[in-house]
């Protein structure tokens, strides 16, 4: 009897001073299950929070002949590919076939358009590079209300500045960019400006004469 009392007292003392108690198998399984569930929930939450939302690229906005146009980069038939050139987009997507493509290497100047007042080779310019720019093609020179030709266009007709006409849009736009910047351009200035526009028909005599006549009609000389 005394031994039982002493054992009970010892157990009470051990519990009161913090000795670890024996953990049963049921308690161990419960703790393991709770930890596993918590870990799974944490992993799920982490995976959810680290998901990224893929947003569509912003549209390409260019102003062509005074009209603002929004183009979408994508894979649909009407979308613009990242590798599409401005010449391709103008011709195939916007129907502005006055912009010609010949060498497609930047050597002939047939694809010349005006971007923000400067002549550029649209066959070497990506459409995406033209975002925010003001583009003028040969279709944008004539008066949209009356249909009257621009003085440079008319001068090319009056002075036989073309034969087959394939290079003519690039020639006219290059000349316009020159006369906009230098209204009193000399013949040397004109020949230098047009040196990147190749013509296989005229020998350039009629072309230079046409630009000089246009300059006069525009009041430059």
Q: Note the beta-strand portion.
A: 5-15%
Task: Tell me the name of the CATH class of the largest domain.
Answer: Alpha Beta
- Could you report the average pLDDT, rounded to the nearest whole number? 84
Instruction: Please tally the β strands and state the result.
Output: 5
- What's the helix count? 7
The shape, in one word, is elongated
CATH architecture of the largest domain: Roll
SS-based class: alpha+beta
Radius of gyration: 39 Å
User: What string gives the helices and strands in order?
Assistant: HHEEHEEEHHHH
Q: Give the total of domains.
A: 2
Parts with pLDDT < 50 across at least 5 consecutive residues: 12-20
What does this structure look like?
The protein is α+β, with helices and mostly antiparallel strands and 221 residues long. The protein folds into two domains: 57-140, Beta-grasp domain (Ubiquitin-like (UB roll), Roll), CATH 3.10.20; 143-221, DNA polymerase, domain 1 (Orthogonal Bundle). The chain has helices spanning 2-16, 25-49, 86-93, 151-158, 168-181, 187-193, 205-217; strands at residues 60-64, 67-71, 112-115, 118-121, 134-136. α4 (151-158) crosses α7.
